[in-house]
Structures are given as structure tokens and as C-alpha cells.
Amino acid sequence: MRLSHCLTDRIMPLQFLSPTHVMSARFELRISMALRCAIFYAGISLSLVGCATPGELANKAPQIVFESVRSPKDFSACVSREWSKETAYISTLVMEDGYMVSLLHSHAGADASVTIARRGEGSYIRYAERMPSFSPDWMKQAVVKCK
Q: Which architecture characterizes domain 54-145 according to CATH?
């Protein structure tokens, strides 16, 4: 019989292990389990920190603001099409003066939101991200590409 939970590079038959080795292996296993649990809970905490609804993102200071010659309907369709190449979690909301297209996170609200309002013959665009430092480039690039 072998000590299967030993965290060393070699696994020694149980009969050759001294009580000190067995206690050391159990201690290392406990540390390993504690470390795994700590990493798991830290990951959950990080994913929940900064949860935002699309409406909260729309009220947040935007990363990009610009005008486009496209109509709000055309611009929202373009952003939806570009984002759908990367993910299926997209929401489009029809508003009084345009659209809001949001890129949703499967567990943490919205990752990004584009508010598109009619401005003359074109559109006024506000793009905001939940966590700009951690967002992939394709999110912002898709919005700029549709300009």
C-alpha cells in the first residue's frame, strides 16, 4: 500500500515511513487543502467584487465617448454582431432615444455597456466597462470598429 497523498516527488511504501514522515505528509496535505480553499474563495470574491448592472455602467464615467454617422439602430446592430463573435452573453435594450447594448458576465452582472443615443442624423456613443484594467481588448475594439 502506498501513501497516495504524499506531496513529495517520491511515494514510499507505507511500511517504510516513520511516524514523522506520516505526520509530515498529513500536515502538508492539510496545508495543500487550505491553500486550495483559499484560492477558491479568493476567486469567488474577485468575481463578485465590482458586480454592476447595465444601468449602473451607463451612469459610470465612460472610457470612450464619440459621435458616429451611423444611426443608433445600425450602430447597436454592429456592436452586437462584433461582440457575438466572442461571446453569446449580449443584451440589447431599446430606449426612448436609442439603444443600450450590454456585454453580460455569466456570474457578475455586466462587463461593458454601450449607450447609443440619436444625435442629428447620427449617434452619440458612450462606452463604459466594469473593470477596465482587466477587460480584454476586443470589447473596446469592437465599439471603435463600428464607429
A: 2-Layer Sandwich (3.30)
| 65 CA to centre of own chain | 22
Q: What's the CA angle centered on 118, arms 114 and 122, to 5 degrees?
A: 95
SS (H, E, C) 32-52: HHHHHHHHHHHHHHHHHCCCE
Q: Are 83 and 76 in contact (CB under 8 A)?
A: no
C-alpha–C-alpha distance, residues 1 and 100, integer Å: 63
Contact status, residue 132 vs residue 63, Cβ threshold 8 Å? yes
- The residues spanned by each domain of the chain are 14-48, 54-145
- Reply yes or no on whether the pLDDT at 9 is more than 50: no
Residues 55-109: tens digit of each pLDDT: 787 788 899 999 999 999 999 999 999 999 998 889 999 999 999 999 988 777 8
Residues in the chain: 147
